[in-house]
Specification:
The structure is a homodimer. The first copy, chain A, is an alpha+beta fold and about 200 residues long. Chain A contains eight helices and eight strands, in the order ααββββββαββααααα. Chain A starts with a helix and ends with a helix. The interface between A and B is medium-sized, with 35 and 35 residues.
């Protein structure tokens, strides 16, 4: 199973040889999974971070009233993990599921440790990724608190340009915190503006 | 200006001597500020993280339509920073303002570097703080997407037990993403349940 995205993800961001990443990759578990396969169930434990080489995952939770919300989509080149489980030894808050047939690389702490030893700049890079993730989550909170349905939708299109065509519209609505009817209305309004 | 909270924040979480933290503290700027003082204006630049020794801050943004939302409150022992400005050289997304007369310690990169050199476990600790912050923001997104006004309120009370009495109810409502009327109704319902 070739993983060119995985190798490029690290070589394009870090001062590391392709052969070194390739060696590390060979020590990682890789999973070819079918659409709807659940990599992690809410309440289970996993120490892995999943890198999406090919396909599409979603991270979602059901609350006590059975209402589902989608925390994130993860298309190619995205990383996804449940932090409660991976870093705080608690049952996972989220389920992680394939929305398409996918190829996933499982990253664990030993991979991180080896990369840290190999690449002097890795700790700083990882830190930057974490700060950037915080920034992104803060933006999303801002959108949920004070943006219109249209603004949320346009932000989504910018962040996940191709996901929109790959998932049911009900999931996009769930991610945005709007009803499927609002989403449909917003899309029509935008199409109408473009055609004017 | 004594800063016992600041010193305890580090000595209770890291293997570091009080005298060492005290030395580092003496190299930090400390600000005594009045209620309503703005430490950082949206659009400005600041490389600082603010530690609240005494008092209470809020971090908030106005969107293009003039709608305000509150990202966080920061009472004693909390850290607050604008990540776009501090880590990504972009204009700040948020304003940071005092809601009470406050004493604030300004932390900069040189403080972090010195602490990293002094305390071998600091990098891992800081990493854990970042992951925990991500967890907290994800929880908040989950609450905004699928929790009732009552659930959001109860979560707020748990996280900020004393802030509730220190800020106007309109700000609590703004943080929760509900109307002041909903907040008032929820509080009455909870008081009613308790008195039964």
């Amino acid at each position: 199973m070739e993983c060119p995205n995985f190798i490029r993800f690290f070589t394009s961001n870090l001062d590391v040889q392709e052969s070194d990443v390739s060696d590390l990759l060979n020590q990682c578990e890789r999973l070819t999974i079918k659409k709807n396969y659940v990599l992690l169930n809410q309440g289970e434990f996993s120490k892995h971070t999943f890198f999406v080489e090919k396909g599409l995952l979603r991270q979602f939770a059901l609350n006590e009233n059975g209402k589902e919300h989608i925390l994130s989509f993860a298309p190619e080149n995205w990383l996804v993990t449940d932090r409660d489980s991976a870093y705080f030894n608690q049952p996972s808050i989220y389920s992680i599921q394939a929305l398409e047939d996918s190829l996933v690389v499982l990253i664990d702490q030993s991979f991180i440790d080896k990369l840290t030893q190999l690449v002097p700049g890795f700790t700083a890079y990882n830190n930057r990724l974490l700060h950037n993730h915080i920034r992104h989550l803060q933006d999303r909170i801002g959108l949920l608190l004070s943006a219109t349905a249209e603004e949320r939708y346009l932000n989504f299109v910018q962040m996940y340009p191709d996901v929109l065509m790959r998932v049911p519209q009900t999931m996009v609505a769930s991610y945005l915190g709007i009803t499927p009817e609002s989403l449909s209305r917003v899309r029509k309004e935008i199409a109408h503006k473009k055609s004017e």
